[in-house]
């Protein structure tokens, strides 16, 4: 019984050293990116309709070259603590492979130290919750190396409330489906009448 266990532990340790199970922790990352998110509508947005403008740049107070390994960035929509409460499926974990704070990827982009901006239309599948925006920087091996976010460390400042697509939208969808059935139906009826008229005039 003991031998296999020893081998298993040894094997796991080896595979960890081989970097595959080496997880980057959020607390080990430096916040070298300055991120802002804004909307002319304020801090309450509707999924599937409203837009959020996200800007990011390298914080120049870090020594030049700090960002020399940065290759790409990913913009993420992340749950604020208030919307994580009693929801283990949105839990914050320091090991980024297990972290569930930032489940929605907004976009990925090549890294640039400045002049970055992206206008995002809040996607239709975003649930109702409070969010902030985080930008992760990745190196050439796609390992996370830095981050920035539009909120403070305790994630209470500058949050966005998103309202999910509601019953109002659903009923519009249902109405438009009914309407297309109705149009197809009336088109069919129209052709039927025309053919009948045609036949009647032929008989005359
Ligand atoms: C840039 O980084 C410095 C050092 O970490 C920090 O004190 C400063 O607040 C940052 N600037 C912005 C705009 O976030
Ligand atoms: C950023 O954009 C401004 C205005 O478009 C331009 O003057 C400046 O050179 C750009 N900076 C970089 C680093 O590309």
How would you characterize this protein structure?
By secondary structure, the chain is of the alpha+beta class. It folds into two domains: 140 residues, Macroglobulin (MG2) domain (Immunoglobulin-like), CATH 2.60.40; 37 residues. The chain is 28% helix and 29% strand. It contains three helices and ten strands, in the order H-E-E-E-E-E-H-E-E-E-E-E-H. The strands form two sheets. Strands 1, 3, 5, 6, 8, 9 and 10 form a seven-stranded mixed β-sheet that branches. A hairpin with a 5-residue loop joins strand 8 and strand 9. It is elongated. About 3% of the residues have low confidence. Bound molecules: 2-acetamido-2-deoxy-beta-D-glucopyranose (2 copies). The site of one 2-acetamido-2-deoxy-beta-D-glucopyranose (NAG) has 3 residues, from loops.
Beta-strand percent range: 25-35%
CATH superfamily of the largest domain: Macroglobulin (MG2) domain
What is the end-to-end distance? Answer: 98 Å
- Unreliably modeled segments: 15-20
**Distinct small molecules:** 2-acetamido-2-deoxy-beta-D-glucopyranose
Helix content estimate: 25-40%
Calculate Rg over CA atoms: 27 Å
Proper CATH architecture of the largest domain: Sandwich
Structural class comes to: alpha+beta
CATH C-level label of the largest domain: Mainly Beta
Number of strands: 10
Mean pLDDT: 85
> How many alpha or pi helices?
3
Keywords: Cell membrane, Membrane, Nitrate assimilation, Signal, Transmembrane, Transmembrane helix
Protein name: High-affinity nitrate transporter
GO molecular function, one term: nitrate transmembrane transporter activity
Pfam family, one: NAR2
């Amino acid at each position: 019984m003991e031998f296999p266990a020893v081998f298993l532990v040894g094997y796991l340790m080896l595979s960890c050293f081989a970097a595959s199970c080496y997880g980057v922790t959020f607390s080990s990352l430096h916040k070298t990116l300055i991120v802002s998110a804004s909307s002319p509508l304020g801090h309450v947005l509707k999924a599937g309709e409203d837009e959020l403008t996200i800007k990011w740049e390298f914080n120049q107070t870090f020594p030049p070259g700090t960002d020399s390994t940065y290759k790409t960035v990913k913009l993420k929509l992340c749950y604020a603590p208030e919307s994580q409460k009693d929801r283990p499926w949105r839990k914050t974990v320091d090991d980024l492979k297990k972290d569930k704070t930032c489940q929605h990827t907004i976009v990925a982009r090549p890294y640039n130290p400045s002049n970055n901006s992206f206008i995002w239309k809040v996607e239709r599948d975003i649930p109702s919750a409070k969010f902030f925006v985080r930008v992760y920087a990745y190196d050439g091996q796609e390992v996370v190396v830095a981050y920035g976010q539009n909120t403070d460390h305790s994630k209470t400042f500058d949050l966005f409330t998103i309202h999910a697509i509601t019953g109002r939208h659903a009923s519009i969808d249902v109405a438009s489906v009914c309407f297309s059935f109705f149009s197809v139906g009336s088109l069919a009826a129209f052709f039927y009448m025309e053919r009948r008229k045609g036949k009647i005039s032929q008989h005359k």
